[in-house]
Design brief:
Oligomer: single chain
CATH topology of one domain: YefM-like fold
Protein name: Antitoxin
Order of helices and strands: EHHEEHH
Strand content: 15-25%
Radius of gyration: 24 Å
CATH superfamily of one domain: YefM-like domain
InterPro entries: Antitoxin_Phd/YefM (IPR006442), YefM-like_sf (IPR036165)
Family: Belongs to the phD/YefM antitoxin family.
Organism: Achromobacter veterisilvae
CATH class of one domain: Alpha Beta
Shape: elongated
Structural class: alpha+beta
Function: Antitoxin component of a type II toxin-antitoxin (TA) system.
């Protein structure tokens, strides 16, 4: 596993390079010389967090059966358009 370090500027100038490097290992992204972020491939992330779900599952809302929601009725008034 290769570890790559890129500055924020280098990342902004060549995102493709960072994505390719992430296939071989983590990419540390620095701000002012200090590590600030890590870019991982989705496989590495899932292995690290032991998650095997897709993005749709991650974004799906939990069951709403126990949530009470009674919206108040709205009245929308109609006004003539003012073209002046």
């Amino acid at each position: 596993m290769a570890i790559t370090t890129l500055s924020s500027r280098e990342l902004n100038q060549d995102v493709t390079r960072a994505k390719k490097a992430a296939k071989n290992g983590p990419v540390f992204i620095t701000d002012r010389g200090r590590p600030a972020h890590v870019l991982l491939s989705i496989e590495d992330y899932q292995r690290l967090t032991k998650q095997r779900r897709n993005i749709a599952d991650s974004l799906a809302m939990p069951s709403t059966g126990d949530i009470e929601f009674e919206p108040q009725p709205m009245t929308i008034g109609i006004r003539p358009a003012d073209f002046s």
